[in-house]
Amino acid sequence: MTGKLIVFEGVEGSGKTTQLQRCLDWLKCEGGKERLVVVTREPGGTSLGSGLRQLLLEDRHPIQDRAELLLYAADRAQHVEELLKPQLAMGAIILCDRYTDSTVAYQGYGRGLSYDLIAQLNQIATDGLEAQITLWLDVDAEIGLQRARARGVADRIEQADIAFHKRVQQGFTQLAISHPQRIVRIDANKSEDEVHLAVQAILRQRLSSWF
Ligand code: T5A
Description:
Layout: E1 4-9, H1 16-31, E2 37-41, H2 47-57, H3 65-89, E3 93-97, H4 100-110, H5 115-126, E4 133-138, H6 141-149, H7 162-178, E5 183-187, H8 192-210
The structure holds P1-(5'-adenosyl)P5-(5'-thymidyl)pentaphosphate (T5A).
């Protein structure tokens, strides 16, 4: 595959969506000149995924933890085959809001499901497709939740208690320790501009080594 998969990860309100959009604008005008740049997200990067996203985030039905895990895996399997693999084959730079680490952090550390089971499901869902780089926007879980909740109604997962979100945070910390080559930590407690400059600096370096 000639394209590159760049993933943004972090707790609720860590600023992924904001930074991903700013990164897209930046890549379009300088960093990724003449390259196809695609923005996507999990859950919800495909038509099937949009429906699964609604089920997962709206508070309409009670969802058991293993059912939740399988719904995220189904979203990912569809996303990988329908969008990620074909776009990477065309040479795209893909900016993806969340990927496999979110499942380890939320369903593993947050819900307490088996890490082995999650690793197996991630393997099945991705067919082995890994990110070239994961930008972990590391913000204090309480600050992130405040930012997310300030926007209005909290979704099903944002409604979980602070202890859950702190376990998720711990999950991302452990993942970064376990995968130092792939995961780059960015201090997301800083201002939007400062975070954007940090993202730019890392990607500028990577882009020049890739292309
Ligand atoms: N999930 C997902 C799982 O449980 N398992 C999985 O396998 C996967 C893939 C997805 C949910 O699904 C869960 C995780 C999530 O709970 P979502 O809506 O995509 O749902 O949730 P988030 O990804 O958390 O989206 P958010 O919009 O809540 O957070 P973002 O994208 O990190 O933050 P953003 O950019 O929208 O910013 C939030 C607010 O903060 C402000 C912004 O203006 C905005 O108002 N902000 C800042 N304020 C101050 N300083 C900064 N540096 C700021 N950056 C942004």
